[in-house]
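BUG: 3D viewer hangs when loading the predicted structure for this chain

Environment: internal workstation, default settings.
Expected: structure renders.
Actual: progress bar stalls at 90%.

Input used:
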Amino acid sequence: MLAALAGLSACGGGGTDLVETRSSAANWSWSLPSYFPEPKVPADNPMSAEKVELGRFLFYDRRLSGNGQQACAGCHRQDLAFTDGLAQAIGSTGEVHPRGAQHLVNVVYNATLTWANPSLVTLERQMETPLFGERPIEMGVNDANKEVVLQRLRDDTSASSYPQRFSAAFPAEAQPISWGNVIKAISAFQRTLISGNSRYDQWLAGRTTLSDAELRGMKLFFGEKAECFHCHGSFNFNDQIVHAGSRIVETPFSNTGLYNIGGTGAFPEPNRGVFELTARAQDMGKFRAPSLRNVEVTAPYMHDGTITTLEDVLRFYAAGGRNIPAGPNAGDGRANPYKSDLVSLIDLSDQEQADIVSFLKTLTDHDFLTNPRHADPFAAN
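Structure tokens produced before the viewer hung:
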């Protein structure tokens, strides 16, 4: 896929169709750029328009949290590419999460679904964490209130009309309002959050032009000097991809030299990456590289939100890591012994860094950020 994109870049577009429709079920079809593969969908949770719309209502409904104070959308705002603009997410009870909320752009193509857990590979399984997790509390659903929350949905007579919506989405079930179906519906909705109409995509399709600075930045991004493409070179601008045709799925996690506490290679607890699960030294500080689509609106950056601007991100990577001179996290991340070989000192001038930032901003898909099919159905009320 990288070769295909690089080829399109080299020829100045290529006249590719921006959107094509592909049917994958009797009552569902995908509208995708021609160079996007068909998404992978679990056999036990097929797509349907009714299920997706139910999932949209549930995603935006505060009644789904234990205390009725926060919806999934509380940490995933459409205008911010379904993140929240905070360094660290805040749950329904006010508890601060140790990491930032990840954006949901093209989440259907993610091979793993959190910052640093290789075992969470489906949206259905991942959703159990924000719903039922206790450390930290996010949605705050637990054994004491699980039935109470479901009863809220059964008793609904508002515009959401949950009894009717669940029956339409799961017509073969006599009692369709269940946690399993809540999770399936929201997962189906999340699979539709596909972004592929940025200015970059329009340029690939030969429908717009890019400025000289944006073109220079793109050449650097996909070239061996800046080497950004090694971790962000797929059609989704990340390095963990799964789709309906996948045979081999790679799930790399990388240490980028963000920390090196006391020169020991350590990252601050409890944000030590894959190491938190494996306790293997070589996994210290390893996190998943997120997609860069819509990266312009997903600040602050990194797993803990400690880099605030795209310009600072470019300076960080050009330096080959971050040196923290003082404080509890002091240490030179550039010398972290577990740092990826792909992260090293890069001779990028201020102008070259600015050009790459200009290119990254072409990945903003304004239609996606305002698409009414992804918007809050309760907003009008």
